[in-house]
What we know:
- This protein has four domains: 2-106, no CATH class; 119-373, 3-Layer(aba) Sandwich (Rossmann fold), CATH 3.40.50.150; 382-531, Alpha-Beta Complex (Adenine-n6-DNA-methyltransferase TaqI, Chain A, domain 2), CATH 3.90.220; 541-572.
- Helices cover 42% and strands 19% of the residues.
- It is elongated.
- The mean pLDDT is 90.
- It catalyses: a 2'-deoxyadenosine in DNA + S-adenosyl-L-methionine = an N(6)-methyl-2'-deoxyadenosine in DNA + S-adenosyl-L-homocysteine + H(+).
- GO terms for molecular function: DNA binding; N-methyltransferase activity; site-specific DNA-methyltransferase (adenine-specific) activity.
- Keywords: DNA-binding, Methyltransferase, Restriction system, S-adenosyl-L-methionine, Transferase.
Amino acid sequence: xxxxxxxxxxxxxxxxxxxxxxxxxxxxxxxxxxxxxxxxxxxxxxxxxxxxxxxxxxxxxxxxxxxxxxxxxxxxxxxxxxxxxxxxxxxxxxxxxxxxxxxxxxxxxxxxxxxxxxxxxxxxxxxxxxxxxxxxxxxxxxxxxxxxxxxxxxxxxxxxxxxxxxxxxxxxxxxxxxxxxxxxxxxxxxxxxxxxxxxxxxxxxxxxxxxxxxxxxxxxxxxxxxxxxxxxxxxxxxxxxxxxxxxxxxxxxxxxxxxxxxxxxxxxxxxxxxxxxxxxxxxxxxxxxxxxxxxxxxxxxxxxxxxxxxxxxxxxxxxxxxxxxxxxxxxxxxxxxxxxxxxxxxxxxxxxxxxxxxxxxxxxxxxxxxxxxxxxxxxxxxxxxxxxxxxxxxxxxxxxxxxxxxxxxxxxxxxxxxxxxxxxxxxxxxxxxxxxxxxxxxxxxxxxxxxxxxxxxxxxxxxxxxxxxxxxxxxxxxxxxxxxxxxxxxxxxxxxxxxxxxxxxxxxxxxxxxxxxxxxxxxxxxxxxxxxxxxxxxxxxxxxxxxxxxxxxxxxxxxxxxxxxxxxxxxx
Length: 572
């Protein structure tokens, strides 16, 4: 059976054979950018030469011409044989047939525009899809067919349809399917514009490019009005997801891989998309996976969206703590996959069923951590920052070129505050000088007592000191909050936010895809434990006394360092 054969090949020690092939390609000047396509061809042709007992170049070319129907794949392989017959023959004798076949089926170096779905993610998707022998299975944005091959290996599926736009990926996919007697039906289409009714399936998997900017309007989708109402930066992400949903039969199930960005952005159009998916009952589950699953996108936080029909709540799962990391790449074990599948069935600290009403109250934010780790509930007498602040502003996003033109070498009445100017929760006094602060940027100047919070972790929190008559322009990577002095002292707020509990809360509210940051709206929801003003002032007094003591120690340390530095000079 195909399932058994693929598992046998998968466990074959084929990596050494792959290295031999790479060395051959390198010797004749090929770049690693093309290794996936070239090594797949080399290994497949070497295998075919052995398995069908072909002893000449002409025999192999005739076999290709007869057995491959796709013109692009046929043309590429015929040309490869014409140019590299001697190398094919040599490689065919460098290893056994199982190793050659395994190299052709499983090798990928993640270059040349061919980014494979991690094997562990394919395994998880197969479990979530619950594929049976009778299911029609569809893999959209299928790349080099590695996900489909892994689904054939780990599920009961015996046939899959792949849809991909890249010709290089189509060629690699066709070669791999050819080696397995064509269990994969490969179609070259644009997933965003294809006729969905032609590709109906019971189980659908999609791993589309993250952050794809769609430069066209959707016209052939029943959701075109909804999709066209959102910014182009998000339109591609949701366009791919909706294409998968439109291909799914009812009953059926879809698993979509996505980054965090589409799941939390505050844009009204994007929120309407999430609302529709929730209220229509299509969204079944959202799963946060550990970062580092991909190369080269090691820092991207990956999520899985599971769709079916008639759901009255959404299962939220945080699996971000699972996995084993090696060489900056994270891998999910079979036990990890089993844990995630179990979390689909039962509540735990990292898995909860969230009602549509709860989702609506949170603007249909689909980040699981927002519902699973409610740190705010542990804050005694907690009051959100939004109710304690008179204003919350972000600093100036002045382009670096304009900023450079404003920098002054001589002292002026104007200075600039950046993240690096905050050290040990204190603002340094020697801020860079500016020639001027124009009327446009006047509103981004900070005042004595403003609470300063960085937008991105690791979070820096400080209180703006008295700078006399100086005007200080805040950088766009900072929020500055003008607090209601009758309710809260800024130093008390700073002390709490710098505590373990405060940092934990800021991290819980921080969201993002490749770059994690906290939004102004999220900052408003951060809870501060309120105590009487008298107690706040007592804490502030103790803090200022300790800071004074620390300043004295730092000055003494500086003097000692200077004396050490002067020892070789013979000075006291």
